[in-house]
Amino acid sequence: NMSFDTKGIILAAGKGTRLMPATLPASKPLLPLYDKPMIYYPLETLVRLGIREILFIVQEDDLPIFQKTFGSGQEAGLNFSYKIQKIQRGISDAYFIAEDFLDGASSVLALSDNVFLGKNFFNYAEEALSKMKQEGGSIFGLPVPDPEKYGVIELDQNDNIIGIEEKPLQPKSNLITPGMYFFDSRACEHVKTLKPSARGELEITDLIEIYLSQNKLALQRLDENIIWHDTGNADALLTAAQKVKRYEMENGIKVGSYEIASYEKGFINKEALLKIAEKFIKSDYGQYIKNIYLKDKN
To answer: How far is CA 280 from CA 9, 276, 286, in A?
Structure first.
């Protein structure tokens, strides 16, 4: 049954207040990270996981802009849907909004402003997806120097997750959960039992805790070679853009191109990819697809 394939959700409803005034004209996920909108990066990951049905959760004001930018997804062999988050009620709220869209499917929930780079990253994401299918839920564990700003994972001596704490004063490890989460179809039921936290949000850590308490949570560790950005402020955005540029130059590839990913997964043929390249032919992005990427494939 096709509808039970895993579906994708991208939460792109943030206000970007820490990036004002840059986010006055455009929503944060649509700001350029190097040469493409930030949201292209998580979108590429979902497509590389073989996910074709993707829901964008956006602010009401941004809906027409997102629809104009991404359309139906059809020309890239994908199927895009859109829903509005009226009030910012936290990450777990995505599962209230996405319930009809998911229609009993498992899902990968990606935050639009979390960007991962690294040769092994897509392999790790595939691992996390298959662990979710076995266990029920899975999360990434990423080592960072400043874990106290994030959701921190507590492990026992056998490296099993025993707890997860949101922004703890005394972090129990340096492993945090970055913004990509893998849940089975029960996520929608589970969020209905959550209470808002002290800051008035339905915390993703509380949803993860439910999976943990039922022994249904797997951990997928990311190694030191994975570059991760939570592009919160202007400096972080600039640094991330520079790292993307360097990564692309060093590896001779373009990251974040969900259209190339779609072609590589066999969702579109060469003619369709060429058509997309022609649409952007005056830019480096279109030139790359036509004159470097597709030339290499011959």
So the answer is: 26, 7, 4
What gap in Å lies between CA 45 and CA 150, rounded to an integer?
Answer: 22
Closest by CA position to 184, among listed 138, 124, 141, 127:
138
Whole-angstrom Cα distance, residue 53 to residue 47?
Answer: 9
Cα separation, 38 vs 159, whole angstroms: 33
CB atoms within 10 A of CB 214: 13
Q: How many angstroms separate the Cα of 271 from the Cα of each of 33, 73, 78, 238, 289?
A: 27, 16, 16, 35, 12
- Cα(119)–Cα(44) distance, rounded to whole angstroms? 14
Tell how strand 36-37 and strand 32-33 pair up.
Answer: antiparallel
Predicted confidence (pLDDT) per residue in 67-102, tens digit: 999 999 999 999 999 999 999 999 999 999 999 999
CB 93 within 8 A of CB 85: yes
Instruction: Give the C-alpha separation, 197 to 255, whole Å.
Output: 36
Model confidence pLDDT, tens digit, residues 119-178: 899 999 999 999 999 999 999 999 999 999 999 999 999 989 999 999 999 999 999 999
Kindly tell me the number of DSSP H helices and DSSP E strands found in the chain.
12, 14
Q: Which letter does DSSP use for residue 157 in this model?
A: T
Max CA distance (Å), the chain: 57
CB 92 within 8 A of CB 204: yes
